[in-house]
Amino acid sequence: MTTNARPMASSGPTPASPRTRRAFAASSRPLLLIAVTIGFFAVWEAAVTLTGTNEIIVPKPSSIFRALVDGFIEPVDSRASFFPHIRQTLSEVLAGYAVGSGTGLVLATLSVRFAIIEFLLRPFVVALQSMPKIALAPILIVWFGFGFNSKFALVILATFFPLFVNGIAGFKSVEEGPLRMMRSFGATQWQIFTKLTFPTALPYIFAGLEIAMVHAITSAIAAEFLGGQLGLGVMIQQLQQLLDVPGMFSVLMILALVGWLLNLTLAFARRKVVYWAPVERRTADR
Amino acid sequence: MDWRHDGRCDVTLPTARVGVGAGRQGSRIEVRRLDKTYRLQTSQEVPALTDISFHVDAGEFVSIVGPSGCGKSTLLRIIGGISHATGGEVQVDGSPVRGPRRDVGFVFQDPTLLPWRDVLQNAMIGIEILGLDRTEYRARARELINLVGLVGFERAHPGELSGGMQQRAAIVRALLHDPKLLLLDEPFGALDAMTREAMGLELLRIWAANQTSVVFVTHSVLEALFLADRVIVFSARPGRVLDIVTVGLPRPRRLEMMVSPEIGALATHIRNLIGVQAEAVA
Known about the structure:
Radius of gyration of chain B: 18 Å
Number of strands of chain B: 10
Shape of chain A: globular
Number of domains of chain A: 1
Strand content of chain B: 15-25%
Order of helices and strands of chain A: HHHHHHHHHHH
CATH architecture of chain A: Orthogonal Bundle
Number of helices of chain A: 11
Number of strands of chain A: 0
Number of helices of chain B: 8
CATH class of chain A: Mainly Alpha
Strand order of the largest sheet of chain B: 6-7-8-3-9-10
Largest sheet of chain B: 6 strands, mixed
Structural class of chain B: alpha/beta
Oligomer: heterodimer
Distance between the termini of chain A: 46 Å
Helix content of chain B: 25-40%
Largest sheet of chain A: none
Structural class of chain A: mainly alpha
Distance between the termini of chain B: 24 Å
């Protein structure tokens, strides 16, 4: 039994296709991106300057940049500093996200395990799901006040559904073949869940986590628009009242950055955890 | 081990089994007056198997051949304890089958490897489920991976393997817990003709090295005859035993036996029984 590793005609692994051309394109991509970005801001700056547009309508990129720098160099305990607002919004988003998606996943698990739970939950889920969750924000503010709690509650509601729905879809995506294989070894329900059902559902769960992240940020900001002391949404409202449009743009930039970083973290985690998922899933969002 | 173009095996077959559980005998199976009827949602009853009786001797290789939908896969699942008969019984080594058995290994048409596990981890899943000693069986898994020609692919994931390699990994998984009975449900059905023949030879080699009893379900008459000691011929639905054919060819089998007059005569006999006039020769 020494030399039988030689693969037969059709049983060898497919060799990697030559990628020299693609590798070159990929390596020059960041440079291209930076050039286009710089070009975009240069044209913007020139257009506002040359047309003499009022900065209350469209601010120059240089003014936005100044507002960004100002917001970061302010003392941390000042209202004008970005930091307390970023911290507030981020904790609403992350805490609500953890609780909401966790609850969604647990209830999805229970629904798949016990048909009666799904039967009882279904009408409530459908009713709540058909409703724009943001419409609940005013009521949540009546119940929980203008502080952290009302935003936290809205984020929970917004992140629950993607995980509940995707969790159920994922758990039900287990195919007959692997199930039969597990049963042929006499696997228990728990062994089938941990070794087959849960890993099978993971790509769906990650898709749900990504949708939930978008909903979490959106609903936290929307709830902050309705009122509050701290948060990036609150900050945009206050800057609007001061007609500080460059300032508003600077907050938008921070929001974009925060959202991007959160999604990047998720995408990284997904690639580490669900490494076996089809390649098109990974490339589709590049 | 080296397979030449004529399919002859140059190296002497390893007859002594190695590692865990060495020296065990294959199971003897007794199928007695087995019936299986499916009840549809319309409460209409569809008979799948009627009055099936046969036996498999310890260490014997038996093929079941029959047209699609004749209930041969159902029969295999009943023997393996993952499906239940509506009448009659199956005994393995004298005790009736009531559920999945620890001493049975299953190979399905689809390799059903778990994509997040590499070859070694996939092979080990039965050991984990059965709660056996992982360290001990990991060594045995490497021996079997060696035996099926997957050396160097222990850490490869199913997505990186061809269909034939995946099915070999599935065979390792089915053999690892030292079953006394190997049940194969059209295991090479999804493979191309060349790979299929080579895999058949490998299966015989593995069987010789492990001394299990084998029940091999296929719809290819030639494959059934080439591999087995005896071939059980099933009718179209509802499945019943039309004949049990003894294949008198010497072992080890060689690919040229596939076109021998004995096999030709038996194949004609079986095809006449089933009523299939022109089967594509695999």
